[in-house]
Write a structure and sequence with these properties.
The complex is a heterodimer of chains A (about 110) and B (about 120). Chain A is mainly β and about 110 residues long. Chain A is about 0% helix and about 55% strand. Chain A is built from no helices and eleven strands. In chain A, strands 2, 4, 5, 9, 10 and 11 form a six-stranded mixed sheet that branches. A five-stranded antiparallel sheet of chain A has the order 1-3-8-7-6, with no helix packed on it. In chain A, about 35% of the residues are buried. By secondary structure, chain B is an all-beta fold. Chain B contains no helices and eleven strands. Chain B has strands at about 5, 10-15, 20-25, 30-40, 45-50, 55-60, 65-75, 75-80, 90-100, 105-110, 115. In chain B, the strands form two sheets. In chain B, strands 2, 4, 5, 6, 9, 10 and 11 form a seven-stranded mixed sheet that branches. Chain B has a four-stranded antiparallel sheet with strand order 1-3-8-7, with no helix packed on it. Chain B is globular. Chain B starts with a strand and ends with a strand. Classes of the chains: A mainly beta (about 110), B mainly beta (about 120).
């Protein structure tokens, strides 16, 4: 079936370093991708999104890169802070439907 | 930004009882809402799509008679777990898309409801 997967289940970084979280997707028809942050016991929080007609989008301290050739998505967090510690999910959406398919998630642990 | 609320935030019930969870879009209307289930240390799994004024669409493997969904208004969807059993214990999360412009359809998530069935 269709799925979105992640390469790394956990990522530990030093405070101030840059973090890169990767995601692979399998549905070539997906045209909208989103990164969510989920803190323990809370719902997912929207971070940044990108459409398939773009390959890069920047936000505040975050950048999402999309490589449609290899069906790969990444989230870059600059100057990672302790408050960035959470589980990060990528999600894909087929433009014909509103359903989101979530990846397995990566736990980001930021150490002082 | 768009806000989605859920009530209750947590609930403990006895096996065999039914539990209703509410999902509300507070500052926007949502003709569609989504219900997810998340087990510990796992990802979100879509259970069903709630459609205002019509029947919900369930994902494969989700029992529609066990997880009753009602979307009676443009701001409220409810999920009722009927005859709950311990294996239904999970974190239930709803979401609603904010159709701000034709180019964006960001989904906003509620804070989740922790269900524990004894």
């Amino acid at each position: 079936g269709e799925s979105v997967g992640l390469h790394l289940p956990t990522l530990s970084v030093q405070e101030g370093d840059n973090s890169i979280i990767n995601c692979a997707y399998s549905n070539s028809a997906s045209d909208y991708f989103i990164w969510y942050k989920q803190e323990s016991g809370k719902g997912p929080q929207f971070i940044i999104d990108i459409r398939s007609n773009m390959d890069k989008r920047q936000g505040q301290r975050v950048t999402v890169l999309l490589n449609k050739t290899v069906k790969h998505l990444s989230l870059q967090i600059a100057a990672t802070q302790p408050g960035d510690s959470a589980v990060y999910f990528c999600a894909e959406q087929d433009g014909g439907y509103n359903k989101l398919i979530f990846g397995a998630g990566t736990r980001l642990a930021v150490h002082p | 930004g768009a806000v989605v609320s859920q009530h209750p935030s947590w609930v403990i019930c006895k096996s065999g009882t039914s539990v209703k969870i509410e999902c509300r879009s507070l500052d926007f209307q949502a003709t569609t809402m989504f219900w997810y289930r998340q087990f510990p240390k796992q990802s979100l799994m879509l259970m069903a799509t709630s459609n205002e004024g019509s029947k919900a669409t369930y994902e494969q493997g989700v029992e529609k008679d066990k997880f009753l969904i009602n979307h009676a208004s443009l701001t409220l969807s409810t999920l009722t777990v009927t005859s709950a059993h311990p294996e239904d214990s999970s974190f239930y999360i709803c979401s609603a898309p904010l159709l701000a412009t034709p180019s964006t359809d960001t989904q906003y998530f509620g804070p989740g409801t922790r269900l524990t069935v004894l």
